Amino acid sequence: MNPITDMQSGTDSCEHLGTGPVSTEPYTSPDYFELERERIFRRTWLSVGRVQEIPSGGDFFVRNIAAAKCSILVIRGRDDVIRAFHNVCSHRGNKVVWRDAGNCRHLTCNFHGWVYGLDGALRGVPDESQFFDFDKKKHGLAEVALEIWEGFIFVNLSPKPDPTLAEHLGALGKSISGWPFEELTNCFRHTVEINCNWKIATNVFQEGYHVPFVHNSTVPDSAAGPKNPFCRPVGMRFYDLHSVISFYRNPEPRLNEIDRIVSKHGPGYRNRTVTLGKLPPGVNPARANDWGFDSNTVFPNFVVHLWGNGTYNTFTFWPIAVDRTILETRSYSKPPRTAGERFGREYNRIVLRSALTEDVATLEQVQPMIESGAKSHFILQRTEAAIRHHYQVVDRFVRAG
Question: Is the pLDDT of residue 277 over 80?
């Protein structure tokens, strides 16, 4: 197996990552960004959605992946099989599906009316007799490798993906399998374009050092408090490609009146009481008593937060330029059963949006400052080790050729 994809069982030590400064060049260099496009986003497994988004035959969604310069159609066939295709007509290269999502009986290119089945096969060609030595079986949609893990749909743009998705996720995937993802179907989402490099955006979710300062008004002491004022993690684990940061939970956060109301009806971002029973071994791997949630960074651009109260969030960072990123966030919980639970879900949505606004405002100040060249390196402390790890894995892929 390629050394890049060899999986380790994971280590709780960050000493192997080093302690030196980290160059800012990979965050600003157009040439480096082009190598990331080719050697990471066109060759690794990318999370594009969940199976619950397309529950019935004919359901589809389109994922435009600017970093890989492509549009991917993910569709469930009448045979209940989920497939992915390049969203490109075989005739003259038109984009076949223009909608973001929907349901269809077949796929029709609006340029010249070529018709494809839900399995990607070419079914109909107007004025077919005028083509030369034409065989419809050879001109279906170009299929994209697709695999599913715990209901998450991943695609890989490489013609022959190596490793498999299971090998890519490795020990991390095995250790958090069993989390009740399929039970948490209530979802709200936010999408925002950020004027910064995708790694800068990803890095803010790989440390809690910023929380007491950036989020002082939204979640001031839920993950920090008198016993842990700087939001030091209660555990860290590093795999070959991925990392896990276990964040502290303040047992006595300051709650306003709305927080108290929400806490009576279910979980809130300011009141993250641990209610789960037995956890998969990779969730809170240190088994810390003051644990609140885990931030799992799945290389290259997917972060999953698993909370002790049984909810979870996902954050996907899609590069669109060296200094621009689209962040998609999704939050999942059990469907609300009462008006109180519905109110709590909506309140959580607003709190998360406010926290993201604080992050975005900060990140957009970072990019132009490092582009100024005033500083050539970042100085990272121990609790920012996951940033160093992600930086090194990205660089390893870029330099591997």
Answer: no
Amino acid sitting at position 363: L
CA 277 to chain centre: 26
- Assess whether the previous peptide bond of 163 is cis (omega < 30° from 0): yes
Burial status of residue 301 (CB atoms within 10 A of its CB: 0-12, 13-18, 19 or more): buried
How far is it, in rounded angstroms, from Cα 8 to Cα 11? Answer: 8
Q: Which domains does the chain have, with CATH numbers?
A: 46-160 (2.102.10.10), 170-400 (3.90.380.10)
pLDDT digits (tens, 9 = 90+) for 139-181: 999 999 999 999 999 999 999 999 999 999 999 999 999 999 9
pLDDT digits (tens, 9 = 90+) for 196-222: 999 999 999 999 999 999 998 888 778
Is 245 in contact with 206 (CB distance < 8 Å)? yes
Structure pTM? 0.93
* DSSP per position, 260-310: HHHHTTS--SS-------S--TTSSTT--TTEEEEEEEETTTEEEEEETTS
What's the confidence (pLDDT) of residue 223?
80
Q: In 3D, which of 2, 22, 12 has the Cα closest to residue 380?
A: 22
What is the pairing mode between strands 59-65 and 22-23? unpaired
Distance, in Å, from the CA atom of 294 to the CA atom of 246, rounded to the nearest integer, reads 4
Give 229: exposed, middle or buried? Use CB within 10 Å, 0-12, 13-18, 19+: exposed
| Range 389-393 average pLDDT | 98
Token code pair at residue 292: 């609140």
Question: What separation in angstroms does the CA of 370 have from each of 55, 88, 326, 330, 388?
Answer: 45, 38, 20, 29, 17
Q: What is the pLDDT of residues 332-385, one digit of tens each?
A: 998 988 898 888 888 888 888 999 999 999 999 999 999 999 999 999 999 999
CA distance 356 to 26: 24
Q: What pLDDT does 249 receive?
A: 87
* Cα 279–chain centre separation: 22
- Cβ atoms of 47 and 154 within 8 Å: the answer is yes
